[in-house]
Amino acid sequence: MSSLSLAVRDSNTMLRRNLLHARRYPSLTLNLLLTPIVLLLLFVYVFGDVMSAGMGGGMGGGGGADRSAYIAYVVPGILMMTIGGTVVGTAVSVSNDMTEGIIARFRTMAIHRGSVLIGHVVGSVLQCIASVVLVGAVAVAIGFRSTDATALEWLAALGLLALVALALTWIAVGMGMISPNAEAASNNALPLVVLPLISSAFVPVEAMPGWFRPIAEYQPFTPAIETLRGLLLGTEIGYNGWLAVAWCLALSALGYAWSKATFNRDPK
To answer: What's the pTM?
Structure first.
């Protein structure tokens, strides 16, 4: 069997293993999935009118119009936050594999070394897309509409979400591999959940205090959210699209190199 065939076969086996783990132990995924849904409902039904009024009259005049406009604004940020929350489970899963001895067993078996990481990454990306679809369904149920997006823009939006999921997954894998236990892995991956909260997910960067704007503007989630918002709502994307892709490629390369170096390191 060729090296490529061996890698594909073993990666497929590891992918099935990770998907079976996710199906047998759904509590972690469900807990992480509840956070963006709760935030979506909270910001739409509790803060929606107030946030719209604070952002100016461009989001509507009456209460219903305000809420509808704010739903359209906040959903792209919530979808990005869903990806950040889902990959926390990946960090925990990788940490469990590293600390419970299964990786040591895999090292002694005649399998492609990279298949273990590939299985985690592909499984995580698939879970991210499934989580985004579920949260998106909730958003549609409470009134989100994307009437201006073409089929090509929808395809580009899905591609962007998958690219962000891939980038964050590689970072989460690296975080999981250096964590001594599952609790530490969850804590190490916490910035992937916190960063969307201090981005343009809930209010425009221009509405933030001057001292806080650089924190929100110069981070990976803001250009990704603005690009997704532009694709779904027909707003101006500008240079955010290139920035989002650049951030994703850079984080993917960093996470891959970090994870590979850690995995190949001889166990102590």
So the answer is: 0.87
pLDDT of residue 94: 87
As a whole number of angstroms, the distance between CA 173 and CA 183 comes to 15
- Extract the runs of DSSP E, i.e. beta strands, from 148-195: none
134: tokens are: 């579920």
Spatial CB neighbours of 39, under 8 Å, sequence gap ≥ 6? 78, 81
Three-state DSSP class for 236?
A: coil
> Helix, strand, coil % (nearest 5) of the chain?
80, 0, 20
Look at residue 245 in the predicted model and tell me its pLDDT. Answer: 96
d(CA 176, CA 55): 39
Which of 105 and 65 is assigned the larger pLDDT? 105
Number of CB atoms found within 10 A of residue 37's CB: 16
Tokens representing 15?
Answer: 């992918």
Residue count (the chain): 268
Q: What is the largest CA-CA distance in the chain?
A: 67
